[in-house]
Specification:
34 strands, eleven-stranded mixed beta sheet, 574 residues, mainly beta, 30% strand
Length: 574
């Protein structure tokens, strides 16, 4: 039995009176803390319209799965012995397609101090704004899902060691993870900011500093992606973090390709080797180039007879004849790192070692290691431009794509994507080559290039790399012309093409009159910073020059350019 004299109901006006009946006020707050309760069946029957329900410090080890409180907005089950959130779905966790919520209008859920070890079942609570799961036994973000309205997420003092499976939470403003193993990492706050949305302003109750946000911005792209896959940087040094992220993503994809026909050896997004610009940061207007090396893991006969067809990536056979215990190959195609083993093939009395690598066009350096000894043949012998000493090289050239290429069903397909505001990527249509030139719309976004493998028409594997955010190019005027008839009273228009990030709204344009005697007139001559000019009688017999200085929105100015008209003619008398 339950003594209802301890039940207080608070109506909209805040008055508190003992009640038994559930009828009456439409907005009710039931406070039932410390009542040694282990079921709310009778309470739900009495108060079916309750909106705020406090059940702290009771004896619940499972919440009644058959209870449906369709108006409940806030539920506090802190300091009980709840082991699962299955009660939100009537006792059974939902499938990947969702289910019927027992509390469909729930906005605030407090489960602090329970025995919950998983966030499975929280994926479809789209109305949830507050989720408090501190002091539980949770070790992973898996199951949380991208809750569109979640503003406050409290997971203090759990067992979370990485940000693996951290979802995109577009409304999140406050995140609490103190007391978890991940919070002890040096880069913890920057990592948290890098994987969260722009609205996040507090981590563990403290505002994010400008320095932390700057570091988080520099982690965007590959580093942030790796963080959501479990990567933990060992320091705050930018270059070291990027190097560690490169190695992490490569090893992650190598592990994922075990058992597949193609195994990733290396993949990078950078600039072409003949580019005058150094570094790997993508810049507007400068092509980003994919370099990739894939090893065919199928038996030699299968590799030779059933190649992956592509207009950009081609199979190259590496072969050493003669017997040995082990033969490896390494070179520029895999950054001179992690030598690649060759398969031992016996044909009658002949023994050889060989492998097939899929490579893009270019001059690829390589060197064999036979039983630990470096071997360089006299054919195509050269000195490594990467400082690796004497080696051989193999020139891979573009080949003409057969007319029936589209009919092949064992292929490699390349596609480019651009990051969006939701921690995802959008496909760029008709971008299927080895390079992509970022434009103004790509500035601040990260590029992702994927290589997809299909065998006999079926998708089998994918490898990819992600760039850092694209930086704006130097403000540049690609072209400047004066359009219109050079006649008194007729409009002349300056037409230009700008590149270099977002252009400043204030144009820097001057019109100059060039007299036949060589004098210039730029004062009180034309409307300042105007693209249009109407020649007057004073301009007849002169030429006009328009000068334009490209300027980015951050006031960075480029080099001025100019264009000159023909001689202005007098208009017919009117």
């Amino acid at each position: 039995s339950y003594s209802f004299c301890t039940l207080l109901v608070e109506g909209e006006m805040g008055t508190k009176t003992p009640r038994r009946s559930g009828a009456g006020a439409s907005k009710e707050k039931l406070v039932l803390n410390k009542q040694e309760l282990n079921s709310i069946k009778q309470i739900a029957y009495e108060y079916p319209d309750v909106e705020f329900l406090y059940l702290r410090e009771n004896d619940f080890d499972a919440f009644d799965p058959y209870i449906r409180l369709i108006d409940l907005k806030m539920l506090d089950l802190s300091l009980n012995n709840i082991k699962s959130v299955a009660f939100l779905w009537g006792g059974a966790l939902p499938t990947t397609t969702g289910g019927e919520l027992a509390l469909p209008r729930l906005r605030h859920l407090f489960l602090t101090g329970n025995c919950i070890d998983s966030m499975q079942g929280l994926s479809y609570l789209n109305s949830l704004e507050t989720l408090a799961l501190s002091n539980n036994c949770i070790s992973s973000f898996e199951g949380l899902g991208s809750l569109p309205n979640l503003k406050v997420l409290s997971l203090n003092f759990n067992e979370i060691s990485t940000f693996k499976h951290f979802p995109f939470l577009p409304s999140l403003s406050s995140l609490g993870l103190q007391g978890n193993p991940v919070s002890k990492c040096e880069a913890y706050r920057a990592m948290a900011a890098s994987v969260c949305c722009a609205y996040l302003n507090k981590i563990d109750g403290r505002k994010i500093t400008d320095g932390e946000m700057d570091l988080a911005d520099r982690m965007q792209g590959k580093v942030a992606f790796c963080v959501t896959e479990g990567f933990i940087p060992t320091s705050l040094d930018d270059e070291l973090v990027k190097t560690e992220a490169d190695a992490f993503l490569l090893e992650l994809q190598r592990q994922q390709s075990i058992g597949k026909s193609l195994n990733l050896q290396s993949i990078t997004l950078g600039r072409s080797e003949d580019s005058p610009y150094k570094g790997t940061t993508p810049i507007e207007g400068i092509p980003v180039v994919l370099r990739v090396c894939l090893k065919d893991m199928r038996p030699a006969q299968k590799s030779r007879s059933d190649v992956f067809h592509s207009s950009c990536i081609f199979p190259v056979a590496f072969k050493v004849t003669g017997d040995a215990s082990e033969v490896l190959v390494t070179g520029s195609m895999n950054d001179w790192d992690n030598p690649i083993p060759l398969e031992r093939v016996v044909t009658g009395n002949d023994v050889c070692f060989q492998t097939y690598l899929y490579l893009p066009p270019g001059k690829h350096e390589y060197r064999y290691l036979v039983d630990g000894m470096e071997k360089v043949s006299e054919d195509r012998k050269t000195t490594s431009k990467y400082g690796k000493g004497t080696c051989n090289y193999y020139p891979v050239s573009d080949i003409e794509v057969p007319d029936d290429q589209e009919d092949r069903d064992t292929i490699l397909h390349i596609r480019w994507l651009r990051s969006n505001d939701y921690n995802g990527f959008d496909l760029l249509p008709e971008q299927n080559g080895l390079s992509y030139t970022p434009g103004e719309e790509d500035v601040g976004r990260c590029m992702r290039c994927e290589v997809l493998a299909y065998e006999e028409g079926n998708f089998t594997s994918i490898v990819f790399d992600i760039s850092q955010p694209v930086q704006p190019g130097f403000p540049t005027c690609q072209s400047l012309v004066i359009n219109g008839d050079c006649v008194e009273g007729q409009p002349l228009m300056a037409d230009y093409e700008y590149t270099g990030g977002s252009e400043h709204t204030q144009l820097n344009i001057k019109w100059i009159r060039n007299a036949l005697d060589g004098d210039l007139d730029v004062t009180d001559f034309a409307e300042p910073n105007s693209l249009a000019y109407y020649p007057t009688t004073d301009d007849v017999g002169c030429t006009l020059t328009v000068s334009y200085t490209p300027m980015r929105s951050d006031w960075t100015a480029g080099n001025p350019v100019s264009a000159t008209s023909k001689v202005i003619r007098a208009a017919p008398p009117k």
